[in-house]
Amino acid sequence: MDWLRALPFLGMHLACLGVFWVGVSCFAVAVAAALYALRMFAITAFYHRYFSHRTFRTSRPLQFLFALIGASSVQRGPLWWAAHHRNHHRHADAPADPHSPRHGFWRSHVGWFLTRAGFRTDWSRIPDLARYPELRWLDRYDTLVPVALAVALYLLGAALQRWAPGLGTSGPQLLVWGFFVSTVVLFHATVTINSLAHRFGSRRFDTRDDSRNNAWLALLTFGEGWHNNHHFFPGSARQGFRWWELDLTWYGLRLMSALGLVSGLKPVPAWVHAHARDGAGR
Ligand SMILES: [Zn+2]
Ligand SMILES: [Zn+2]
């Protein structure tokens, strides 16, 4: 256990208890929900589908913008995230998998990144990303962006208390709801894909790992719950392979593509559908 990393992580959980002191307002809950949605999209579309799997292209400024939003999620920088995730796919549920539930539920959910080994970035996995100095900077100073977001939320809350008292919010209230509650829920939702999506759900494809498709987790994580689909074919920007498999990240990426912000969204090839246990239908 790396206590220097684990104590702030535990502290973020304890800070959520602050809701009993700071109270609640519609505005604070709306900010928490909006920051959950924006940052979940940054994690799934960019940290995962873009940085880890290169399933579409974008401009360098937009690459940085979404890396920055992702970095505010307290899931470290994009290089660390992608390196760990690429190792996960390479060794999925084998002994070298950084977070397989075969090695224990809690280890796969939170234990893996609180260890000294989990803190290290495996640079051999990410030569394509490491050549961007701005991404290396985000990784190097991974606490800076979250702290900046927390301070900004506090200042916004304090300003609104003074100039828009009708909203019923305050600096401490916006800090607790907008930062601590939103970030902790976002974190646990994200890591359910490591823990629960390798345990509970159905298997459409015979992969070597234990990955599952789980509609509830897909709803919570904007499409990442179609994890058995994803392990069978990680090279697609889309993870809900059938029309009824809700994949909010995919819809978001389609919208960004229509606006010309991203391009080259990699589709699901026909041969993939032919390997499905439940028929070749889409
Ligand atoms: Zn997995
Ligand atoms: Zn993946």
TrEMBL record:
It is a multi-pass membrane protein. InterPro entries: Acyl-CoA_DS, FA_desaturase_dom. Signal peptide: none annotated. It comes from the Bacteria. Residues 29-253 form the Fatty acid desaturase domain. GO terms for molecular function: oxidoreductase activity. Keywords: Fatty acid biosynthesis, Fatty acid metabolism, Iron, Lipid biosynthesis, Lipid metabolism, Membrane, Oxidoreductase, Transmembrane, Transmembrane helix. The chain crosses the membrane at residues 12-38, 144-164, 176-197. Its EC number is 1.14.19.-. It holds the Pfam family FA_desaturase. PANTHER family: ACYL-COA DESATURASE (PTHR11351), DESATURASE 1, ISOFORM A-RELATED (PTHR11351:SF31). Belongs to the fatty acid desaturase type 2 family. This is Acyl-CoA desaturase. It comes from Luteimonas rhizosphaericola.
